[in-house]
Design brief:
Keywords: DNA-binding, Transcription, Transcription regulation
Mean pLDDT: 90
Protein name: Transcriptional regulator
CATH architecture of the largest domain: 3-Layer(aba) Sandwich
Distance between the termini: 70 Å
Number of strands: 11
Strand content: 15-25%
Radius of gyration: 27 Å
CATH topology of the largest domain: D-Maltodextrin-Binding Protein, domain 2
Number of domains: 3
Pfam families: HTH_1, LysR_substrate
Family: Belongs to the LysR transcriptional regulatory family.
GO molecular function: DNA-binding transcription factor activity; sequence-specific DNA binding
Length: about 325
């Protein structure tokens, strides 16, 4: 049994076969014939001096040695893939991959991206609209925009303005519910996408901000903020809308915010990337554009009395 490492191609064949528990599927993944893959694994077993698989009639299973090798092989190839992608990105100043939540992408980013594309035609911008936790070292992503209050340990993190919420509705509904107190009888829409924030930034908190003790017992509930806003646009009811999600619809008159009291959440959007990556030209350009776009609408906050949610927390 040799103490030296075996050929990388043989280890790769083993890794694929161990993941699929099938020589045929592993061969398909690696674009080789099953015979070629079987030869690679056999050479690996000869190098080790013991079998890695038990060959059954229509399946394979790992031996004790195979079970010992499989986790390390998988981690090793994942680390190699991550390092390779990181090395490629270091030399690429024209491609930028950004991940943001579906709601922010639909309601804020997408309507504005033509401005960034016009200002930076040299950058090939790619988007992944997801809330999945991304590993910026392993995943092929340069920038993540996330909402909340962190923590963002080990990352470059640039927080932007805190979000606030205020009731918004169609102009027709606004005529039916002209006062905060009248909202007790209105069909209220609940945005459950930020229920993770503490203290809660919800309808009871807003009602307390205007001096009303009221806990709604009914109303449509949505797990995505953009779906809650779309329901309000359709006239379903009144939603406690976040600043970033409602500004465009308010500016264009589809929604109105008749009550000038808002509650400020403890969460905010953060621009995240690996430490040092913020200096790469395309990331710096997107960061500066992102911050500038937010500041363009900062004056809208002057129209509201914005009350931190901590001040209206239920006793």
């Amino acid at each position: 049994m040799s103490a030296s490492l075996p050929p990388l191609t043989a280890l790769r064949a083993f890794d694929a076969a161990a993941r699929h528990m099938s020589f045929a599927k592993a061969a398909e993944e690696l674009h080789v014939t099953p015979a070629a893959l079987s030869f690679q694994i056999k050479s690996l077993e000869e190098h080790l001096g013991r079998p890695l698989f038990r060959r059954l009639n229509r399946a394979v299973e790992l031996t004790e040695a195979g079970r010992a090798l499989a986790p390390g092989a998988a981690e090793g190839f994942a680390a190699l893939q991550s390092a390779w992608q990181a090395a490629r990105r270091q030399g690429d100043d024209t491609t930028l991959t950004v991940t943001a939540g579906p709601a922010l992408t639909a309601k804020w980013l997408a309507p504005r991206l033509y401005e960034f594309a016009r200002e930076h035609p040299e950058i090939d911008l790619r988007f992944s609209a997801t809330l999945r936790n991304m590993d910026l070292e392993r995943d092929d992503v340069d920038v993540a925009i996330r909402f909340g209050d962190g923590p963002d340990e080990g990352l470059y993190s640039l927080p932007v303005r805190k979000e606030w919420q205020t009731p918004v509705m169609t102009p027709e509904l606004a005529a039916q519910y002209p006062t905060p107190d009248s909202l007790r009888d209105a069909p209220l829409i609940h945005d459950d996408s930020i229920t993770f924030l503490q203290p809660p930034c919800d309808w009871p908190a807003w009602f307390r901000a205007v001096g009303i003790e009221f806990v709604p017992e009914h109303g449509a509930r949505f797990s995505n903020a953009d779906h809650a806003i779309d329901a309000a646009l359709a006239g379903v009811g009144v939603v406690l809308g976040r600043r970033s999600m409602i500004l465009k619809d308010i500016t264009e008159g589809r929604l109105v915010a008749p009550f000038k009291t808002a509650i400020e959440t403890k969460g905010r959007y953060r621009f995240l990337c690996l430490p040092g990556a913020e200096k790469r030209p395309q990331i710096a350009a997107f960061r500066d554009w992102f911050v500038a776009e937010i500041e363009k609408t900062a004056h809208v906050s002057d129209e509201f009395e914005i009350i931190p949610v901590e001040k209206v927390t239920a006793p």
